[in-house]
Amino acid sequence: MAKWLMTLGGAALAMLALRDVFHTLWHPTRHGGLSRRVMTVAWVLSARFGRRRAVGLAGPIGMVVVVALWAATVITGWALLYWPHMPDAFSFAAGLEPERHTGFLDALYISIVTMATLGLGDIAPAEGWLRIIGPLESVVGFALLTATVSWVLGIYPALARRRTVALRIAQLRRAGLHDQRPPTPGACAALQGLAADLAHVCVDFRQYAESYYFHDGDENTSLAANIVYIASVADRIPPDADADTVLARDLLRASLRDLAVTLDERFLHTGGTTRHVLARYAEDHWGTTKS
C-alpha cells in the first residue's frame, strides 16, 4: 500500500509542476502560482538592495529559478514514482548489482537521465507500465525545454514593445506635447496611435504577467517613468475641444483605464482610481511619479 501511495504522490508532484507550466505559458491565469510567487519574491528582494542593477536582474534571475523549479519538481516526482519499484521492476546493465541500487538517489539518477533524454541505458524500466512511464518523462522533458524557449521568445518581444511605447511617450514629452492647447491634428493622431500601443501593452501584461517584474532600464524607455505624464496630457484636453481631439482623449483615457485595471487586478491590488494605480505602478518600478 505504501509503495503505491508513494507512486501516486510522485505522479501528483509531477502534475503540479506541469499544471503550473500550462497556466503560465499556454493559459495565463492566476493559477500559475509557482512562477508568480517566485518572480514576486525576486522583485521584492532586489528592490530591498536599493540598487538599479539588482532590480534589473530580478526578472531574468526569476525566470531561471522558475524553470529550475519546474525541472526539479518534475524530476523529483518521477523519481518518487520509480523509487518504490526498484530494483525488481528495472533491468540493470552487466556489472551492476541490483541490490545496491535501491535508494532514492538511484531513482533520482534514472529520472534525470530519462528527462534529459540521455538514454544511457545502464538502468532502465523493465515492467510493463514503467516502460510506458519512462519514455513519457522524456517527452515531458522535451516539452519543458520547448516551453522554456517559447517563454523567453514571448517575454522579450513584449518587453521591447513596452519600452518602445515608453520611448514614444518620452519623445512626445520632449517635443512639447504638454504645451499644445489644444493639441494639433498631428498631436491627436499621435495620441490615437499611443492609445493603440498601450492596448498592446495591456494585453502583454495579461499574456506574460512575468514581464511586470522586468525593469525597463533608463528613464526614456521606462513606461513606469512616463505613464503619469501621458495620463496628465489626456486630462488637460478640454471637453469643448473639436471632435477629433475629444476622440483622441477618450481613446487614450480608455487605454490607460484598461491598463490600470490590469495592473491593479494582477499586481498592485490598490483598489484605487486609474491615476492612483498608475502612480503606484510608477512608484513600484521607478520610485517616483512624473507628471
TrEMBL record:
The chain crosses the membrane at residues 61-83, 138-159. Keywords: Ion channel, Ion transport, Membrane, Transmembrane, Transmembrane helix, Transport. Pfam families: Ion_trans_2 (PF07885). Residues 100-150 form the Potassium channel domain. It comes from Streptomyces coeruleoprunus. It comes from the Bacteria. The keyword Membrane applies. One of its GO terms (biological process) is monoatomic ion transmembrane transport. This is Potassium channel family protein. The keyword Transcription regulation does not apply.
